[in-house]
Design a protein that fits this description.
The chain is an alpha+beta fold. The chain is 49% helix and 12% strand. The protein has a four-stranded antiparallel sheet with strand order 1-2-4-3.
Length: 138
Amino acid sequence: RLGAVTGSRELLSRIRACRMPWSVNALAVEAGHYLLQHPEEYRMDIQALLTERKRVTDALEASGGVEVLPTDTHYFLAWLQRGTAAQLKEFLATRHGLLIRDASNFEGLDARYFRIAIQTEEENNLLIEGIHEWIQNS
């Protein structure tokens, strides 16, 4: 992963003091340079991602087994009313070839939490169907 931050000198100094050394590998740095040199080739339609996120989160919440936490991004955190994220992740991977992020090791969360990043409409439909199937059978 590669990210950027802007801020005052004071804030950036405090952030530098707390960050891990070598927090970004050389491949990520080179990828970042390439993307900055070719912005038109990799422009994302953020509004389309947010619209798709709303569709996916609404569909998951309609299942009755998933609660989605509010977000302003193209990914979201959710939790299961029954079962664990590890069980759901295993089911989706083995039965549907899909991956979700088990968020049970995030500080303050428990075994029910998972994170999803919005993909294409087709991929998201497969994910919705897979999660609905798991909820109905668990």
